[in-house]
Amino acid sequence: MSDPPLSHLDPRARTPETAPAPPRRARLNPLLKRRGRRARMWMAPGIGVKRWVALFVACTLLGAVGVLHFTWTGPLHFVATRWILWVNTLIAPEVMPLYTGGAVLMLLALFGALWSIMMLNGSVLRGTGTAPETAVDMLYERRNLARGPHVVTLGGGTGMSNLLSGLRLHTGNTTAVVTVSDDGGSSGRLREALDMIAPGDLTDCYAALSDSPVMARLLLHRFQRGEGLEGHTFGNLMLATLSEEQGGLSEAMKDIHEVLRIRGKVYPATTSPSTLVARLSDGRTIRGESRLAAQVGNATIQEVTLDPPDLPTLPEVMVALQNAEQIVLGPGSLYTSIIPALLVPGIASAIRQSTAPLVYVASLMTEPGETDGLSLEGHVQAITRHLGRTPDCVLVNNAMPPRDVVARYAAEGAHLLTLQGASRDLRGRSVLCPLLQAGQARHDPHALAQALLQLAPRRTVG
């Protein structure tokens, strides 16, 4: 037999059904506070509402003056006279001047006009599926995000999507240029079957910037069964469908941004399939990103190229780089995520010509089979060799991961990257910040985004 409810044992304990309702004043206070906050948000600087409210009030007052002039000087003069005399009978002259009646009526009319506009807007918003209570929050957020810096990020993998999930909270002017040379897993299978660019990293970036939580979750859903479907993500299949239906992803970019409600833009570094080619210190050449880590062995990577070398890029990417206020490389794998995006000729040329600060987000650790034994300075030098421009700033984490985490990575052949032994030039370019997620060896997206925005040039908002 189950225990009796606590309310049966203690008369002071009440279930939700029998508990007394909170006082009316207690219920109203939070509601009034929320409405007061929303009212203040409508009048916030830059939201684009105050100017129209001011115009509405000015036009209403001008209309009142016009009606007064028409009635007093026209054939309705007797109506105006009787109206004024009737209003005067409602006022005690010894208490207040007679003209206050007109002022009160004018204010009441203005309040009624504003109230009717608010109700009309509420009806329109409900008809479009937007709750009036959240409209001001959305407008306020988008106006503020629209004033954020124009940041262009280049790279791929988990590091890129992690960064974007932090930047989306601070600016709506982010453009992600994504490496698309992956030839393993779901991306590799779709590339081989459809002769398309690798969609995997694009999917991750779309999910990171999507304003729809449901769509972001669906994009990353990976099928665990089904012949031909197993191993593919929904996002990869969607991009493959759009590429097939429109003859390439370059024609589908606009549709993708609208359908997924992207806060910012995501573009592939190139619209043509390409293969990553690595030249090793022992003279060997490895073709294919997926084979790199497994076949490097005791050698080191000297250079990576793309085959074919003359790859096109989208005009939108070139415009974004020309208008960038900050260009960010990484975080991500040096030779398979960051540098491949810099090997597209148009992108490399635009970055070299750009006056925007170039920031490299340093990796937290070396990657087994890819950057074994390579120091932080070696990472920066590799970027300089392949790009033809040295990063203006290197953002370095200075927080120490837990010892057990460091030991686990060390057992796999990965070691922390620090400024130990770095040259004076690199130390002068470096900015140290705590960028780790608690208890992990992974960048915290919010700390990383805030650090980058502090490095971005200050904008003057007119």
From TrEMBL:
Q: Enumerate the transmembrane spans.
A: 52-72, 96-117
* Matches recorded under Pfam families: CofD
Q: Which UniProt keywords apply?
A: Cytoplasm, Membrane, Transmembrane, Transmembrane helix
**Ranges where the record places region Disordered:** 1-25
Is Protease a UniProt keyword of this protein? Answer: no
InterPro entries with a match to the protein in the record: CofD, CofD-like_dom_sf, Gluconeogen_factor
Q: Give the signal peptide range.
A: none
Question: PANTHER family, alphabetically?
Answer: GLUCONEOGENESIS FACTOR-RELATED (PTHR30135:SF3), UNCHARACTERIZED PROTEIN YVCK-RELATED (PTHR30135)
- Report the function annotation for this chain: Required for morphogenesis under gluconeogenic growth conditions.
Name of the protein described by the UniProt record:
Putative gluconeogenesis factor
Source organism per UniProt: Deinococcus depolymerans
